[in-house]
């Protein structure tokens, strides 16, 4: 049945396009939003140069709330917000809104954890030499935690690929959605298997790339 | 130069206030190598960090060169910190930067231009003996080399003061010696005042001119290192000094002692007088030396002997005139030795 395979290939290509779009955009927001939020959580809690319990508590609780809501439910809860931002609640673009929100919260926590891995002594040394907070963030914390940030980003992107499977609920499409629609609802096991294999390969690629970049950024083990 | 006045540091936990440093006062002169010694948790690290206000005192004042810096904040505090170097027990180098960049960091913080940094960093690395490791990452260096980078970074801005937080505690004995030698050289050649904390008297003895002894947040004793070693007053200091001299006797000897066991301290040229043989002859007793050591601190000698005074095994003819009982003779001998030495401690009678 070559025509059937041809249409499956076309569907797959299309679905991958949607997945890349959703994961790409929400991944971008994870970095843009999650990185600063992670720094904020770290700095406010460690009381390095900005002692602010309220900021930490607010940030931390918000992140926890977002992270404790199952993604399917977050997707539904955020429908009004999505409508407000994009003027629609349907399609891959609409799915990126809840995906981005989840990604920011997820990545922020991982960024905070990566920053906690930086030897406090190194920060103390920088303070002892009279480095300003901005300099410590940009030239000490950031490069020292960069490998951790990259590993965290890898984990985040892979989770986003998983989350994006649920985007079908809002007509988001993507590889996961394809697997559910054809493989599960239509009992086309072969489609299910092909999409799963495609997803496994995608995740492997992301992980390998992430590991390489992280290793390159991490000079500790050279 | 550095004046710490009634410094107290308190940490608040949920239900109590812990006083890490209790009313500590120090005066450290320009060009001095000053040691602070104490057990871990004695508060010496906190006290050291008040000098560059990494630790803010709960009470008391910090003065550098007569200027009160205790209340400095923000940019003014950061400028002040650039005049003080700090080295750490665990080096605290940035892993992701080369040796060059670790040293350059301190210069960049101080706002130096790239050209100046490029010229100055190799000079400093040369001074600490690392001119062949410029482009190497810290993970490729040994402990001693890492500490040399730490020192280079700390003195890059020509600070007036170098603070050393247990600088040799993570190093082996030989490397420790080399690092202390380097610190001494920096003190001599660049005239940088050094404040060093350590839990080991042996480190203090090697490098410091003066020392303060801390116990449970308080400075219990301070003074010239030689004097502290020669005449420790506080029980804690005595314990530290004793441990350094390490004159413990094996149990085999202490279990079955016959006679009077003395610990005798000689200072300076008195160590050269044949005091013990004279005591033996004059009082007709035997003197058995069980342990002994001579330490040189700032080129002055401290001699310590552990000797057992007892009955002569065979009454030799020239001592036959002695009729006094043994206990009396030993007591007289102890008195005699006491007059001829700096201090006598009776360990066992």
Automatic annotation (TrEMBL), chain A:
It is found in: Cell membrane. It comes from the Bacteria. One of its GO terms (biological process) is D-methionine transmembrane transport. One of its GO terms (cellular component) is plasma membrane. Residues 16-210 form the ABC transmembrane type-1 domain. The chain crosses the membrane at residues 20-43, 55-78, 84-108, 149-171, 191-210. InterPro entries: AA_ABC_Transporter_Permease, MetI-like, MetI-like_sf. Keywords: Cell membrane, Membrane, Transmembrane, Transmembrane helix, Transport. Belongs to the binding-protein-dependent transport system permease family. CysTW subfamily. This is D-methionine transport system permease protein. The lineage of its organism: Bacteria, Pseudomonadati, Pseudomonadota, Gammaproteobacteria, Chromatiales.
From TrEMBL, chain B:
One of its GO terms (biological process) is amino acid transport. GO terms for molecular function: ATP binding; ATP hydrolysis activity. This is Cell division ATP-binding protein FtsE. Belongs to the ABC transporter superfamily. Part of the ABC transporter FtsEX involved in cellular division. Important for assembly or stability of the septal ring. It is a peripheral membrane protein. Residues 2-241 form the ABC transporter domain. One of its GO terms (cellular component) is plasma membrane.
